[in-house]
Design goal:
Number of domains: 3
GO molecular function: NADP binding; phosphogluconate dehydrogenase (decarboxylating) activity
InterPro entries: 6-PGluconate_DH-like_C_sf (IPR008927), 6PGD_dom2 (IPR013328), 6PGDH_C (IPR006114), 6PGDH_Gnd/GntZ (IPR006113), 6PGDH_NADP-bd (IPR006115), 6PGdom_BS (IPR006184), NAD(P)-bd_dom_sf (IPR036291), Pgluconate_DH (IPR006183)
Order of helices and strands: EHEHEHEHEHEHEHEHHHHHHHHHHHH
Subunit structure: Homodimer.
Keywords: Gluconate utilization, NADP, Oxidoreductase, Pentose shunt
Radius of gyration: 26 Å
CATH superfamily of the largest domain: N-(1-d-carboxylethyl)-l-norvaline Dehydrogenase, domain 2
Catalytic activity: 6-phospho-D-gluconate + NADP(+) = D-ribulose 5-phosphate + CO2 + NADPH
């Protein structure tokens, strides 16, 4: 019988799994590994894991025998049915108090279900988001664990050791909450990532088509931006992308087809926002922008018959326009994160998760794809006021928006005049203008709903929660429809 000397077992040796295992090994943890295609275990041990204390297993039964109690088994497999199938394979070899960890991009409702179902069998479940891509997994990702709280003390040391660290050494990993809370926070992270990427693409398009900047010039602009308020992983890699040359010496960016892919987490975020009635408009537009990009053949045909503005001069002051675009990007980013945090707050209430908003910003501060200087400001805002209703009500954020909004508007006026689509910039400004407006035209909307469907309305001269119905034509009855909230 094998010696139960391993601290944790990991199933799934794709790139993320391999890199997490090597990361754990670097930090002194002994890891047992298994893969459904068993030859991959031997290949890994002979190559990437050569010279380490990583132990290979050729069956799940052997993997479990190698583990210290309580046994910790981490799954790095494709989200969905594959996770359930793997759990079913592992379960017969475990005993009460053992821990199963799902480190994939699972839908949070699946993690809700798995936490409860496994608890009934005496097994502790953790559903954890892991962000940072291949490099993050290898050298320090952002880790967002949720699930059964009783499991956390048994994995805390491993997770916090391998996680990214911020400047003072604090790990970008802490307990998020019960059931699917960890995977929900990871989902919102990915939705915000969709928004950040789309905003950067719109800034690129405005500078490229608005002023005709070359990739080399764009490299210089983005590298400069990365030294200031926009300092972030995504701005940094964007600058590097613009500098990359193809084999013929020409910019690689100009040779990449403009159709975007997606794995679904941005879509899940938008769907959850609709379910919870939260106006997370920017992430929604970012998802739809990818869908529009996928209609490449139709766009080619449309470009032949649909006209845009002609004879419009490019902005005359290049430096001023660059700064307007930079400020538009920063303001829109603030809106996107404010919307993401609105969603987190509402999901926390709905699911009875006690989410630490400042702690989430700290987890995202390093290791993950959206890591940036900006997240430190979010952490500060929630440190000042744990009950902050909205990031836009924090004096740092409303101070920036008040100062920069004129530039933001100028950039969008230029975009409209030039016929350059900026869906994320535009929806961010529309949300800002809606959120700061004391009286919106929804009074007319309510009148219309009451007119055609007797859906009732509230009055400004009566207490909230008191509903009225009007017989608008004199022909209708006095009966009103059931009141509901959308």
């Amino acid at each position: 019988m094998s010696d139960a000397s391993c601290d944790i077992g990991l199933i799934g040796l794709a790139v993320m799994g391999q890199n997490l295992v090597l990361n754990m090994n670097d930090h002194g943890f002994k890891v047992a590994v298994f893969n459904r295609t068993v030859s991959k275990v031997d290949d890994f041990l002979a190559d990437e894991a050569k010279g380490t204390q990583i132990v290979g297993a050729h069956s799940i039964e052997e993997l479990v025998r190698l583990l210290k109690r309580p046994r910790r088994v981490m799954l790095m497999v494709k989200a969905g049915d594959t996770v359930d199938q793997m759990i079913d394979h592992v379960l017969p070899h475990l005993e009460a108090g053992d821990i199963i960890i799902d480190g994939g991009n699972s839908l949070f409702t699946d993690s809700n279900r798995r936490t409860k179902a496994l608890a009934e069998k005496g097994i502790l479940f953790i559903g954890t988001g892991v962000s940072g891509g291949e490099e993050g997994a290898r050298f320090g990702p952002s880790i967002m664990p949720g699930g059964n709280p009783a499991a956390w003390p048994h994995v805390k040391d491993i997770f916090q050791a391998i996680a990214a660290k911020v400047d003072d050494g604090t790990p970008c990993c802490d307990w998020v909450g019960e059931d699917g809370a960890g995977h929900y926070v990871k989902m919102v992270h990915n939705g915000i990532e969709y928004g950040d990427i789309q905003l950067i693409c719109e800034a690129y398009d405005l500078l490229k088509r608005g002023l005709g900047f070359t990739p080399d010039e764009l490299h210089d602009i983005f590298a400069e931006w990365n030294k200031g308020e926009l300092d972030s992983f995504l701005i940094e890699i964007t600058a590097e992308i613009f500098a990359k040359k193809d084999e013929d010496g020409k910019p690689l960016i100009d040779k990449i087809l403009d159709t975007a892919g997606q794995k679904g987490t941005g879509k899940w975020t938008a769907i959850s926002a609709l379910d919870l009635g939260q106006p997370v408009t920017l992430i929604g537009e970012a998802v739809f922008a990818r869908c529009l990009s996928a209609l490449k053949d139709e766009r080619i045909e449309a470009s032949k018959v649909l006209t845009g503005p002609s004879g419009v001069a490019a902005p005359s002051d290049r430096d001023a326009f660059i700064e307007d675009v930079r400020r538009a990007l920063y303001c829109s980013k603030i809106i996107s994160y404010a919307q993401g945090y609105m969603l987190l707050r509402e999901a926390g209430k709905e699911n009875h998760w006690n989410l630490n908003m400042g702690g989430i910003a700290l987890m995202w501060r390093g290791g993950c794809i959206i890591r940036s200087r900006f997240l430190g400001k979010i952490k500060e805002a929630y440190d000042k006021n744990h009950a902050l209703d909205n990031l836009l009500l924090d004096n740092f954020f409303f101070g920036v928006l008040n100062q920069y909004q004129a530039s933001w508007r100028k950039a969008l006026v230029h975009a409209i005049e030039l016929g350059i689509p900026t869906p994320a910039f535009t929806t961010a400004l529309a949300f800002y203008d809606g959120y700061r407006t004391e009286r919106l035209p929804a009074n007319l909307l309510q009148a219309q709903r009451d007119f055609f469907g007797a859906h009732t309305y509230e009055r400004i001269d009566q207490p909230r929660g008191k509903f009225f119905h009007t017989n608008w034509t004199g022909r209708g009855g006095r009966v009103s429809s059931t009141t509901y909230n959308a």
